[in-house]
Design goal:
The complex is a heterodimer of chains A (283) and B (216).
Chain A: E1 2-10, E2 15-22, E3 27-31, H1 38-45, E4 53-58, E5 61-62, H2 68-71, E6 74-77, H3 89-99, H4 105-114, H5 128-140, E7 146-150, H6 158-174, E8 179-183, H7 187-193, E9 196-201, E10 204-210, H8 211-217, E11 219-223, H9 225-230, E12 236-241, E13 246-250, H10 253-259, E14 264-267, H11 270-277
Parallel strand pairs in A: 3-8, 3-9, 6-7, 7-8
Antiparallel strand pairs in A: 1-2, 1-4, 4-5, 9-10, 11-13, 11-14, 12-13
Helix pairs in contact in A: 5-6
Chain B: H1 2-13, H2 16-32, H3 37-58, H4 62-66, H5 73-106, H6 112-165, H7 169-181, H8 185-213
Classes of the chains: A alpha/beta (283), B mainly alpha (216).
Chain lengths: 283, 216
């Protein structure tokens, strides 16, 4: 569905160097620290930014040459952009009707009512949560084959976040061929919906793994100095010195569990993955 | 392109009260002072109102999202010209209606020649304003573009003053007058339309380049 080959984008103080592939029917998460390059990656995919080198294809078309017809198949939420805040939902419905042949106005209105979004108030008067919900509804009510969502849950409380995540889940359940690319700084959101995860750091993909594998096989060994000197280090991806000894990040926690009885192993979540691989001390 | 027209129309309609005040001022001035005032006045306001949609697109980084909707950069450029020219002409027509109604109510004779002269003077103004302001606003944003426009006008006025002071000024003016005398009104109109078309095409080409180079 999306392919990025040898993509390079250079800014004065930052450069991006990417290769990735997002297959049809996958929910893929893009994680990384602030400034890692997630939003720039999304913009490159959408043709909003041009790569200096390499090629990104979206639905077999060059990302920078996407036609209006091809864009009809894509639903987008951007973290820091949306419809003009001077428009009202009633205006947005009219615009969407003109934009997408498959726009489901009934569903859109129904969901707006369910989420208590006022139709006749300018968007600038909406709360952060209301704006975020509106963005998600705009992206998901025209039967898009591809959803690209940059921080769709940013600024939402737990309840609103769950509502938005439920919408995404429902959307995927309606049609298994739909593809979703989602970024979030709240990793637990991605753990529950993504099939695979790309971890970006300093403009480079430093890890690509299935979410099940990350949650099942990755772990953090908590060891003291003595144990650290004795354990097999070939499966340690990163080690960080701590107050009690070492935190060692591994993608083979079962190996250590079987070979070092009594070793303390914590399950790795995406937050730890970011912390250990995109920060901390080198192995 | 339908997306963009609908969006711009909705943005303009979100300022209904402002538009109503402008129309009322046009009616008031036409009634009180000049029978031809509202034509030029509303054309100019129509142009400014339509141009303000660029500021709306530019504010809050809305343009990035706009280009994820089913529209291309090329369509955006074409739509902007059609919208600015169309809105200005429509506003000019509203102005004409006000002039005609004002004349009828006052019991004056509606002079067709004057109306044609008003239209003929409005169109170059809107083409010049739109053709200059669309690329400037997209390149520099609403604030900086005003400064750039003022600078350009300053340079033009200064050049005019310097030329006027030169010893060749009277000779040049005389030659222009002679040239104009030799041209029939029909050919003058054709020349004017050709100049306006050329200005618009050049402006569209510059704006297309600006939009193609733009990153969001």
């Amino acid at each position: 569905m999306i392919t990025a080959k040898n993509i390079k984008k250079r800014y004065t103080d930052f450069s991006l160097d990417l290769n990735f592939e997002i297959p049809k029917g996958y929910v893929t998460g893009l994680i990384g620290k602030n400034g890692a390059g997630k939003s720039t990656t999304i913009k490159l995919i959408l043709g909003l930014v041009r790569p200096d080198e390499g090629r990104i294809t979206v639905m077999d078309c060059n990302a920078t040459d996407l036609s209006a017809k091809e864009k009809e198949e894509i639903g987008v939420t951007l973290a820091e952009s949306g419809f003009s805040p001077y428009l009202r939902i009633s205006d947005i419905i009219s615009i969407l009707k003109k934009s997408y042949l498959s726009f489901d106005a009934h569903k859109f209105e129904k969901e707006c009512n369910r989420m208590h979004l006022p139709f006749d108030k300018p968007v600038k008067e909406f709360s952060t949560g209301m704006k975020a919900k509106l963005k998600v509804l705009v992206a998901m009510t025209h039967n898009a084959k591809l959803l690209i969502m940059d921080e769709p849950t940013a600024g939402l409380d737990v309840e609103a976040r769950n509502e938005v995540l439920d919408l995404i889940r429902e959307y995927m359940e309606e049609d298994e061929n739909r593809t979703v690319l989602i970024t979030s700084h709240i990793s637990s959101d991605l753990e529950s919906i993504c099939d695979d995860i790309y971890l970006i750091d300093n403009g480079k993909v430093i890890l690509h793994e299935d979410t099940d594998v990350i949650l099942g096989e990755y772990g953090i060994l908590k060891v003291d100095e003595e144990m650290y000197s004795n354990i097999d280090k070939q499966y340690l991806m990163k080690t960080v010195k701590t107050g009690y000894g070492y935190s060692c990040f591994t993608n083979q926690k079962r190996y250590y569990k079987e070979n070092y009885p009594g070793i303390v192993i914590e399950n790795a979540k995406l937050d730890e993955l970011i912390l250990m691989l995109a920060g901390g001390m080198n192995k | 392109m339908r997306t963009l027209f609908e969006k711009d129309l909705r943005l303009i309609l979100s300022r209904k009260s402002t538009m109503l005040i402008f129309i009322l001022i046009g009616i008031l001035f036409t009634w009180s002072f000049s029978s031809s005032f509202s034509g030029a006045y509303l054309t100019m306001l129509g142009t400014m109102l339509a141009l303000s949609t660029i500021s709306f697109d530019d504010s809050d980084n809305c343009m990035a999202f706009l280009f994820t909707l089913p529209c291309t950069r090329k369509q955006y450029v074409l739509e902007k010209y059609l919208f600015v020219y169309g809105t200005s002409l429509f506003a000019g027509l509203v102005g004409m209606v006000i002039i005609i109604l004002s004349s009828i109510i006052k019991g004056d004779v509606v002079n067709g020649t004057i109306l044609i002269e008003i239209i003929a003077s409005e169109i170059p103004i809107l083409v010049m304003t739109g053709g200059l302001m669309i690329p400037l606003q997209l390149k520099y944003g609403p604030e900086k573009s005003r400064i750039v426009l003022m600078s350009i006008l300053g340079v033009v006025i200064m050049a005019g003053v310097l030329i006027g002071k030169s010893t060749y000024a009277s000779t040049i003016l005389e030659q222009i007058n002679q040239l104009m005398d030799g041209i029939t009104p029909f050919y003058l109109l054709v020349a004017l339309i050709a100049v306006l078309v050329i200005i618009t095409i050049l402006s569209i080409l510059v704006t297309s380049k600006i939009m193609n180079d733009k990153e969001f």
